[in-house]
Specification:
- The protein is of the alpha+beta class.
- It has a single domain (7-26, 40-136), classed as STM4215-like, CATH 3.30.2000.30.
- The protein has helices spanning 7-20, 77-90; strands at residues 25-27, 41-47, 51-53, 63-74, 100-102, 106-109, 114-116, 123-136.
- Strands 1, 2, 3, 4, 5, 6, 7 and 8 form an 8-stranded mixed beta sheet that branches.
- A hairpin with a 6-residue loop joins strand 7 (114-116) and strand 8 (123-136).
- The mean pLDDT is 92.
Amino acid sequence: MATPPEVLPHVDAVQAALETASLTVYVGGTPQDTGWTAPDLFAVLYPDPGTARRESLADDRGGFEGVVQVTCVGGDPVRALWVADRVRSALAVPLAVEGRVCWLPEDLGGPPLARDDDVTPPVYYLPVQYRICSTPA
């Protein structure tokens, strides 16, 4: 029986791909430290726990499928869209997860660009979801 797949190496692979594209990336939200100031543009990952998928009738659950929302944030609409373009380019190739064969991330889209007036100064954000899948190598 195959070892069940883990979500964290997949999230780490998404983060590494985005950081390779020169993006600042946070997971699960932005820092809440006193004195923290948001950079002019960044991405925030919101992963789901994923699903261990059956690969055979023997109930071998070695396959992985999950969705990662990448919220693209910028100080103005153009910067938020620029982050979205960098994310799309960075995720246009299969992820690198040790011991796994990853499929090309599937761009699932998301809602339109929006403005967040609950922070000072206001920022623009654009959530985009990606389906990530892998099988044991």
